[in-house]
Amino acid sequence: MEICKKRSVGQFSAAPYLATLVNCMVWTLYGLPMVHPHSILVVTINGSGCVIEIIFVTLFLIYSDPKKRLKVALWLLVELIFITALTLVTLTTVHTLKKRSAIVGATCILFNIMMYASPLAIMKLVITTKSVEYMPFYISLASFGNGVAWTTYALIRFDPFITIPNGLGTLFAVAQLILYATYYKSTKQQIAARKANGEVDLSQVVVASGGQQSKLNN
């Protein structure tokens, strides 16, 4: 909502959304009957996740500056090529469910850890600026809930491919929530100070100047 309102992504990073998208795509492949049978929850939840993340990535493609937009588009293309290649190789060259589950499951572990670790750059920014302005609380909270839920589900079914990455992901999410609690007050103080001094975010300046330039050109 903030991105749409400002019509700019500002310092928000596309990395967590791109990482989550490829993670959801790989897990959707893992849950297919011809790869890992009886995993309908894995398919439906991660399939829905793909749709949600595509919406977020689309916002970055619309509201980013040309340089960042190109970078996001290239990463998205790489992800689509990768998941297509993985699907074709798995379904055409591997002929047993056990081996398919092992190959795709190992890939899932890698990308699941990458997804949970993707906010590390933002966490560094939070520590440097002592502000959580660009680390949305609800995304961190959702990551924590997601990690706990999937870890619990995996322990019930005893699926190590789901347990390992989501257990680690829960720890990453806890670290984000601790940072949020630590720098929440200082963030409010910084925002209040900017408003008191009549300052605005850089993204707002860019949008405003762009609008003025457009009027001049007309």
TrEMBL record:
- Keyword Transmembrane tagged: yes
Q: Where are the transmembrane segments?
A: 12-32, 38-62, 74-97, 103-123, 135-156, 162-184
* A Pfam family reported for this protein in Swiss-Prot or TrEMBL: MtN3_slv
Q: Where in the cell is it found?
A: Endomembrane system
The family database entries (InterPro entries) matched by this protein are listed as: SWEET (IPR047664), SWEET_rpt (IPR004316)
Membrane topology, from the record: Multi-pass membrane protein
Keywords of this entry? Membrane, Repeat, Sugar transport, Transmembrane, Transmembrane helix, Transport
The UniProt entry's GO biological process terms, in alphabetical order, are: protein homooligomerization
Q: Example GO molecular function term?
A: sugar transmembrane transporter activity
Q: Does the keyword Membrane apply?
A: yes
Can you supply one Gene Ontology CC term for this chain's record? endomembrane system
Indicate where this protein is primarily found. membrane
What PANTHER family does UniProt report for this protein, alphabetically?
BIDIRECTIONAL SUGAR TRANSPORTER SWEET6-RELATED (PTHR10791:SF130), RAG1-ACTIVATING PROTEIN 1 (PTHR10791)
Task: Say which family it is in.
Answer: Belongs to the SWEET sugar transporter family.
> What protein name is recorded for this chain?
Bidirectional sugar transporter SWEET7
Name the species this protein comes from. Mucuna pruriens (Velvet bean)
